[in-house]
Amino acid sequence: MATEENQKKWSQLVTSAWADENLKKRLLNDPMPLLPEQGIEIPAGAEAHVTQDKNTALALMKNYDPFRSPKHFKMTDLLKKFDKTFSATGTNSGKIGPDRTIEDVMKRWQDRWNFLFIAGMWFQDLFNYDFRRTEQCIIPYATQEGEISFCAYNTGVGWRNIIEKMHMTSTLTKWYEEHGRHEIFAGGKKVNIEDKEHALYLREEIVTHEGQHDHDKLGIAKTAREEKMQARDKKAENNKVKNDAVYDARMAQLYREVVMAALLVLGVGQAFAATTTITLLQTRVPEQMRGRVMSLNTLLMMGIRPVGDFPAGALISVIGAPVTVL
What we know:
The protein is an all-alpha fold. It contains 17 helices and two strands. It has helices spanning 2-19, 21-29, 31-37, 54-63, 75-86, 102-109, 131-135, 150-154, 159-166, 172-179, 204-207, 214-218, 224-239, 245-284, 290-304, 309-319, 321-325, and strands at residues 140-143, 146-149. Strands 1-2 form a two-stranded antiparallel ribbon. Strand 1 (140-143) and strand 2 (146-149) form a beta hairpin.
């Protein structure tokens, strides 16, 4: 009941601060004395910090796309969903605590939209530790040394090990010596259960039935591998449109216009390079060395080059002559 009353008073305080700039500054700068004035209880030893998250509101406005959203899902519905969680306007959307009633459940179910929140956990090490990411952690841990974020407590320098060693009352070995090891259940052993009766049962006709095929009939992938295979098959199906006579004729024309012209330029350049090389060798090499130098050049040009013809021929049989030449 106290939690619900605090929630109502907090909603009223936020609404008043939105209309009163001075009250808003007090709430943001020093909320500790203000909250008790408004009748909001603060647990002993706790601290209160209030921030104005304009980025969230701007992100909602920026990323909401009415043309890509579900049918009948308006911007007002999106704002109501967030207000349902944070109670910024003081609207009673039904309690969610252990004291909730069936009326509260039905009141929350009146909203036709549901959100699926997917969060990723970033476990950092000393190589990729990011202090800014640690500051943005939304999960606080209450420890003997004060509040420490989940990200800082479990990653990086290892605050968990530091706190546990600071307040450790006994080592594990010493505890086992004084109290003995606790009983290990399962682990290859039979667990003694007093009552084995339960309300769960298996329908034999379903268990022994053949594999599930309804997803296959609807074309729904059941695994990530099947999704990739479906995407590959769909891409191949779209590419089949290109395998027609008009497309082949167009590719042949481009081959004659582009590739053949490139081969002509390549051939002229190769002949020019060969002629220039032989001329330079005969004019710049000493006369007594000219014969053996020319023989070495002939060996390299006519003896080594054919070695590359074998892999080139293999590539032609696999990917075709045009691609091999390019």
